[in-house]
Design goal:
Four copies of one chain form a homotetramer. Chain A is of the alpha/beta class. Chain A has eleven helices and 14 strands.
Chain lengths: 326, 326, 326, 326
């Protein structure tokens, strides 16, 4: 029988792609014990039957907040937005620390309700921290509820953060692999639709723009996502018009990221394959004539979802930030 | 107003992959006029909105046998098995010649009901011809109802036909692109499931084996299909144990196929890409020690479905067999 | 023996991807006869051994200007830049009309020599026409030498042309399939490098920018190309800052393209798969806040190379512009 | 300065795909220290510049046996066959334990010289052990030189071993991802050649057949490899005719593999994606009529090369067999 300690973790919603990676990382985590994985339609199946290569030998259970609370002191919730808030509330009420992968706790209430829907647990918003670790590290430490950023905002914000006070305008042309669209089988995710194709979507407004809007503090930007025939990987190509005031942009990036364990500046344009199945973000900065071009790659399921969630959780629990992620 | 002639054709079920290719071929066919395309859930949409590159500028209609009969003298039906038989009957009753892409008219009744289900239009079976053109050409000419063979049997039977009287045993290891699984979005057809993967399925018995069983006249065979990360393309690798009685297998293939417009013998193992979006079957024959290895490639949507259906239709209507297919 | 008429065409450099597609299109062209295909290292091989699905049953020959001139009155030259100019000169001296796929005749001399190298046939530049058909149609008619535009400029210029007098600044984020990198086997084109990857390249200056520079007449732009795991297909995502002076951009696009046979305005963001193996360019225009977003897709080997070359050739020879391209 | 202990390892030829994975595994190995990586044409570059996601922060050196011997007590050699033997000899002469990934030490001399070429270090053959761990574990323990099996033989032999005494005849239809063809850029490995394609090759005799021949002890078999559009992954579909003498084949597999840490029997046909980037082999056994069908998947760079090499090395050094491989 496992004694109750502060290092037991559950993944709620571990049958989707993001939750599955979270389970995989936590199962191998040296300081944490993955004690429960839940799923909705796949409850009863073993996680490693669904995801053999992740090798998590646990049975997916129906979600029951009391059962989870009896076996874990923290949880990663990987439900779709809307469905996440009630589950998060149930776990917070039972005292668990929670990292939520959905959009439900990323935005202020007004902005959330403008882009999404009525909020199901607004009372939790005040204590929720936006979990872009490199930016909000101090708030994340000790937080009880952290909202892991969306995959697009993670790549774009890491590309833009060092310039944030200088940006006049930015175009973010982002390209994501198909796992970012989730495990649901749709016309969009059908192999025949995706292969030999690249296509922009939601040109008039992808919800992830709300996070850019909030975190960039009003800088003018255009954000267009594209779907590419790749399983895991996301590239944000950012075209920045900035008033540099004589600053060398590369120097700003070095100052911002030289001590960051998961952000690397590269001399060449990075490929998404460089960071596949890692928690890294690789960033390349180049000034071409009047424009600062910043290219930023992540694995959308790792640094763009589950990896960052574990990075957040490590901080919340006082563990070394990189543990389980190397 | 278009005058009623014998060259008007409809495609019933033109929203699926096979039916869509049939519509594309017929729309460009020099002697036939595509006058109607029908669909079930996509009725009301334009075909070229669904399949822009096929450039068929017709609106998909609900299927109505009378309406179709008012505008066409023949039809290609591309419904799933079970659903096809009633539609075929309705069209036959109205005097149309029909090529059916489903399994409903490929097999004798007993065999059909063993592998599939109770037959919905058994009275039509006697007049139905199995539309493997190279084998049943004479019967197809003038037939009123032709059943286009399955994609796997097409490739396998063209690989085996010249040896049919000599075969003692054969292993057919077949690999198909994802369009063969149809347009339905499922876990199996999700890009993330397919990419970076290859997997056998239905090892104990894929229904297409019934066609091999019927056409090979009792030769012993093992048939295992595999799904590969390819959009269109099918390779049947056939390993034949035969009593050659001193015959040169290559000579048998030359005799069988030298005059065939769509079958080519190759000196090197063919790739599926060689025949993509063509009605060709490329066949490579090699004797290695005691075994005859025959490799056969087709485009599963062309020679494996819609292309062969048009080849059949050309024959049924007394047109040159290759018309519209080059 | 074929009588010498004005409708015989050769493809010089038919073993590369662009030249091979040119040969395929011309071989099926109703008014032109493909009489010769040449290649450098592949001379002696049949074209359809190299490219089975294109079905061009000709033997690749060593290039000999006299031999070509004896059998053709026009030619498409598909050599790399630098190598093209001398071949073009030799053919022009023998009276052939030429469409050149390389960069050698796309730019003014000064600009060419700045971006490429010393020009090998500068005396031909004055008569060369930039073959973006929709823009330079009148000059192309009757021209003796036309330079088919680069694939990136084709997509980008068609996206920008209707706005050209209003553009203040534009970001062109372009994504190309691997065939655009040519047939040479390199680390860049290795399957393992390309699959599961997307990467920007030549951020500081791809040579195709020279064409944008020339044709956009000094408008400020940033152009960054990306390589994607696609065989054929190119998307230019253009982010335009314009002084619209009350004009409706969509109206400008309608005026420019409503009569164009190969340019289509779409209500949804187009995918490269929509235009695969067609000569079409699909363009989607959307104003989002202050910015005009224009998305433009082509098949890089068709409208971006060989298809457009045939479109040019049709015009040069007084044939219907779309012949052989539908 | 690192003290000389028995746990220092070098990878000779770490710029190729197999050697690179070996370096990646060893760099994270808890009991071994990767002290040197060598390369031929890439010497001077950092390993993590070539393979960013493997994160091996070492500079590739020219191979110098003395230098390697000064820093390592064992080595994995990942040179092409022919080039490997002299390097292995040089390292063995300096007392290093060696696992060789090439074919040079997998076969008896006569067989090697029949399939390959004159052997460059025949005096080492007597002590070399064929490193299929599950089969030759006892000989590997304490060996000085182990030859890691080819990728195809690994998958096929693990599929066939439990039946070896019963096999009358077997067809091995094998499918491999492109990394198995190595890092060299060729027409065969060009993205455009591979994507949307599947093709058999070396139908008359792939050299890996020599290993099957040797290890299967004369059982009659046919082996045909196929190239598929996958980066890493290999499936061997084996069709066995056996004299079962009343034995249940599944039982034989259970006896053989129930205690094996890296071989798993599955209830469903396994996909290569199940084992991607793991050292696992998944095996599915099904009797269909007279035939035993065995499907076996591995990652060709892991269990089919570098992973198995580390498994061998663990045994040779008396470490737990699975160390560094979970």
């Amino acid at each position: 029988m496992s004694v109750m300690t502060a290092d037991q973790v559950a993944v709620v919603g571990a049958a989707g792609y993001g939750g599955a990676v979270a389970a995989a990382i936590l199962h191998r985590h040296p300081s944490l014990e993955l004690t429960a994985v839940t799923a909705r339609s796949d409850a009863g199946r073993r996680h490693d039957a669904l995801y053999p290569r992740y090798r998590v030998p646990l049975v997916l259970e129906e979600f029951d907040a009391d059962a989870v609370a009896g076996r874990a002191q923290s949880a990663i919730v990987a439900y779709p937005h809307g469905a996440a808030a009630p589950a998060v509330r149930a776990l917070r009420e039972r005292g668990l620390r929670v990292v939520d992968l959905s959009a439900d706790f990323r935005l202020g209430r007004e902005r959330y309700e403008r882009w999404y829907q009525a909020h199901a647990a607004p009372e939790l918003l005040d204590d929720a921290v936006y979990g872009l670790t490199e930016v909000h590290r101090d708030e994340i430490r000790g937080a009880g509820l952290v909202a892991a950023p969306g995959c697009y905002p993670t790549a774009a914000l890491l590309a833009l953060w060092p310039l944030r006070d200088l940006i006049q305008d930015v175009v973010v042309d982002a390209k994501s692999g198909v796992s970012g669209a989730g495990r649901e089988a749709t016309e969009t995710t059908h192999f025949v639709s995706v292969t030999e194709n690249i296509q922009a979507y939601k040109v008039e407004g992808h919800r992830h723009a709300a996070e850019l809007e909030q975190e960039l503090n009003g800088a003018s930007f255009t954000f267009v996502p594209h779907l590419i025939p790749v399983e895991q990987g996301l590239l944000a190509s950012c075209y920045v018009t900035a008033d540099l005031r004589g600053r060398d942009p590369l120097e700003l990036f070095r100052e911002a990221y030289d001590d960051e364990p998961f952000v690397e500046l590269t001399g060449e344009p990075p490929g998404t394959d460089d960071v596949r199945e890692t928690n890294r973000c690789r960033v390349h900065v180049k000034v071409v004539e009047e424009r600062v071009i910043v290219l930023s790659v992540i694995d959308n399921l790792w640094k763009g979802a589950a990896g960052q969630a574990v990075q957040d959780l490590n901080l919340m629990l006082g563990l070394p930030e990189t543990e389980g992620l190397e």
